[in-house]
Protein 1
Amino acid sequence: MTGALASVPVRAIVRGLADAAARWADADFPPRVRVLEAIVVRTGYPLPVVEYALDRLFEAITEPALTATIAGELGSLDALDGWTARAGRGDARALPVGQVCIVSSRTTIGVAIPAAVYALCAKCDVVVKDREDHLVAAFFASLAQEHAAFASAARAETWSGSHDARDLSGFAAVVAYGRDDTLAEIRAACAPEARFVGYGPRASIGYVARESLVDERGAGAIAEGAARDLVLYESEGCLSLHALFVERGGAIAPERFAGLLARALERAHVEFPPRERGAGASARLGGARALAAFRAASGTGAVYGDRDARHLIVLDPPASDPPLLLPRALNLHVVDRPGDASAYLERHAIAVEAVAASGKRDDVVKMAVDAGAARIAPFGALQSPQMEGNHGGRLRIADYIRWIAEDT
Amino acid sequence: MPYNRESGELDAEIGRVIAAWHKHGRGLSDAEFEDLALRIFAYQLRYDEPYARYCGSLGITVAAMPASWHEIPAVPTAAFKEATLATFDPARAALAFETSGTTSGLGGRHYMETRALYDASLLAGFDRFMLADGARLRYFNLVPNPADRPQSSLGYMMGRVCADRGDGNTGWYLRGDDLFVDAFVADARAAVEDGVPVCIAGTAFAFVQLCDELAERGATFAFAPGSRIMETGGFKGRSRIVSREELYAAMVARFGIREERIVAEYSMTELSSQWYRVDAPASPAPHGRLMAAPPWLRARVTGADGKTLPPGVVGALVHVDLANRSSCLAVQTEDLGAAVGDGIVLIGREHGAELRGCSLDAETLRAAR
């Protein structure tokens, strides 16, 4: 461990991170322009989607956001630079936990960067397993221009094959994203006392309460947001909208809302053009569409799609149907109460990351809490998490901190 | 509705098509296939209510028929779990096969009004693609015994084949998930000693299990020349998946049967006819297996919008099986393939797309449930 950031004041670190991010938030910033095409190639997402992702990612990394998160979790930034007094307790200091490894294989755009940012704020040395687009490496290069210490503290590496191609036993903390079996393997490769921060498979849902369906305009605005939450990243992220619950009893009926959503999707396809789909996804979409149409012909539910099969909305499928988990495809369940959504999530053992809600009704919030969600967001903002947010329900910097306290 | 004259006439006509190919190798021209397919479809629109409702929702009725067999609406396989797709009262069904509950956990049924078409179709195909040399074999089955599990279409098929083409010493080695390896080994040794050629038929997963067990015991066999293997199905719902190359190598090593004597069969409960692999296993097509079917079974390859894709383009397979007279002749699958000449290159079911970090995928969801 080099401890390259050990003597750098945390405010300088935060400023360096925010300044670099600000440069990356500029669409014309040359390193961003250079890496753009590589991200398009790796993910297959069209350029507007990648641009949007980079905007959201880097615009969120600001001094106020980082400062507020650190102060919120540690009491103050000063704890990272030295001993600080604590009310009713002895002085304490937040030290870096040690070297941190972030295994960001198979992730959406830049998922490793927020974790790396917080680990660097904790003054840890960070190694990120980068993807083929080298986005993290390029961002780290910008960091080094902000402060020379970042050059030693932040390293992005690529290693092919599975996680075991890299020895993880020397890291004090390992952050990983992926399936449960992948996380279990990575965890097993860590040192016994290492901190493991695993982000397993999760989905996000939406809940439209009847009181928000009072008129076409209000319902249309919710539909616009839901359409954006659905189409971004081709439904592949843990923050993508994977199931939508709409209450009966509003002035706008769920059937009408489904129609509004379908129309909103037509517009969303223009803003965020669909990625070219593989034959497998097309086959599964075709099967889902045909089954929904078959049911609709028998009087159960309805199906909404366009001529080019860019999206699929299935209205009121049986509760036994799991989420479609296909690009730009969504089951819209008609419900009477949030408990119906809870029952569905429990039935299908869905771990929920975030809930898009049309309002903060108590029973809707309770449903989100019971589902294990880490976040409640308005429709349209599901895929734009704040830097202060608690991805996976975890604190952001605390995992990278080792406390030392003085007895009173 | 009792078995009526119209049904009887159609069955007789389809039966003649099957017999002409089976006995004389006579195929069906495009026009002949089209004509018969559209007449069967029109019949199904009159007698298969759920199918007719579905077609009606797509604007297709007896009064507004499609111009080509390519435009006959296909029901997804899952529809067999949703409704009774039959042109007759299923209480009179001669055969009823159960589909597996893959996605929703619910099973479905495929009803056949008579055995005649089903039997004629499966035997004609098996004779052509498995028994072109006219061999009479001893059958070792790693599929459900129809005596125990009459609702298994695969079990029924092999039961029919064994009864009509076997040597009278058929073995059944699968019950539920239990594989009777001791019995297989004993019967296999006897067949080797007697110099009797065999046909081992089973699902890919059952073969994996058997080869694993035989490897543990260090058992190998040198079956008589002319022996062969029919491998079918995949690894649906199974935890261990091996490549087809690995599986075939193991089968060659355990049974002493040459790789070119291993034939892959592909079908499903919702069909009455089967596809068989016709390219050499030793020189596999880079992206799939070349499959052929009897002339009354054709496939079209479709995109997400349901439209037929040009030859060579990979998409979802829609099977049009004229022997499905009493249910639904056009069946949409999620299996991938491409049209090539009169056959298809079968790629099979694609697993989920590449995962994106902490996103949820269908496989994970199924495992969680």
Note: The mean pLDDT of chain A is 94.
Protein 2
Amino acid sequence: MSNREIEVDNLVKRYSGDVLAVDGVSFAVEAGQIFGFLGPNGAGKSTTIKILTSLALPSSGRATVGGFDVVTQANQVRQIMGVALQDIGLDSLMKSMELLTLQGQLFGANKGQAQARAKELLELVGLTEAVDRRVGTYSGGMRRRLDLALALVHEPEILFLDEPTTGLDPASRRDLWQEVKRLNQSLGMTIFLTTQYLEEADELADVVAIINRGRIVTEGSPAMLKAAVGNESINLAFDDRSVAEAAAVQLAGLATSIQVDRAVVRLYMEQAAGSIPAVINRLQEADISPISLTLTQPTLDDVFLQATGQSLVGQETEPALAV
Amino acid sequence: MTSQATSQPYMNAGPSGVHLPQQIALVTRRNLLAIFRTPEALIPPIAISVFFLLIYESTLGQAAGFVPGLSGNSYLGFILPLSIVSSALAGAGLAAQNLVRDIESGYFDKLLLTPVSRTALLLGPILAGAFILGIQTGIVIGVGLLMGLDPVTGPLGLLAVIGIAVLLGTGFAGFTVSAALGSGSAAVTQSAGFIFFPLTFLTASFVPLNLLDGWLATAAKINPITYVLQAMRETLNTGWNSSVLWQGVFACLILAIVMYALAVYALRVRTRRS
């Protein structure tokens, strides 16, 4: 029915007052791929997904979903795509079975087919126990899972998820990740998701595009992006930013790249362990003492940091080895 | 998996055509379900209409002797339609309140992403509102019967009155649905209904049309409610009069069509992509 691909060509979205929410974004998602848009709040993720799901019009540029143009062929796009946005829209007076059945019927199934499909989906997202309760009594995690089920009723070939686990507890988050992976692996569903969480992009995406201020800054598989930054990093924490910056100057030349993130200096290089003595020597010569020294594998935060000069807010790297 | 087996129905769905009547039925049914799940919302409209009936009858029923051609039971038949019409907006507006709820919760946007036709999305709440008004009218008539109402045209006449009320309800519901779509706010939708309130009094409310004069008579003559009242009253008090009945039905139809057009426009504005 559709080619299960997404193609975006120089998409621009300008709001009144010349605010460029999306500034010339281009990318392609292959059939059966999980594609992640990673970026902080306000980067343009939600705007992009609204355009792709035919809810908003671009100011310029083209986008096709499943081979259909999102502007001129919106009806066809809606037929082959499923959407679960950040704001969950559910009728709190209805029961989950009723909502799912109605959705199926609106898409053309008869009552029996719609009910069977609803049961199937409730099992898939683990909501069979709450079938007879009104949606208004559901927890946040349950509502998100029902929202996902609702998006899947008509067996879409392409699924759009806008920040699917924001606000969820860790257990619900992991459950949702499992479901997304299952959908992709067993049904070959193409999935486009936006997120501000590194682990989510790392865990789920085949390809990650890092977006900041309306532009794609870098794109590639998580492994590839992290490898490009350097294999490992030595992280030195200092008292404050000025000390860190002074230290960074002293350490110039010892690493493939050096980044200063608040009061932490990160040195990216191939073989970090071997460079530790040299690093310590330089610091001693300059009479600068770090508070701590850790050795880590690069994360997508490092990728983001290197590409944009900022860290994704609230994220901290996990030390693999503490010295 | 079962993907192949169940993929068929979704291929058959189109935005309109074959599935339209079913779509309308689905949306209407859902609207009614939502209304009946908050039963306390049904109390004010029913209470208001019964209250109007009791108060009009008890305060004016005695004075009816001074009005030429009216007294006793036929004043009940004269005033019952007024109580129906005075409270019609409250009952017919319940569906619009649910529409506002859907807009606020975001569920309405979800519905817009399905192939459901815009016609069904509008007719759903409108028909639900009209249905509620039918029930409300039935209850008021029940109370009227208890108070001694004795329609000249018998039970069939009562059914005709309910039928006209339902038709009127589609117009009122259309208006409140437009307000809901236009504002997305419960408060505005509620207040918008009050525009109709004067309409129910700029009419032959307490005395027959031929006893009015001056500006009130003119206003009453162009007010569709006047013809609705006349149709109901004629059927209850005098007998079957096809021209009066048709005038009433026609007045309802005009109101319904105008309000539906307004609702279509409001929906178009709301769903316009930017």
Note: The first helix of chain B runs from residue 3 to 12.
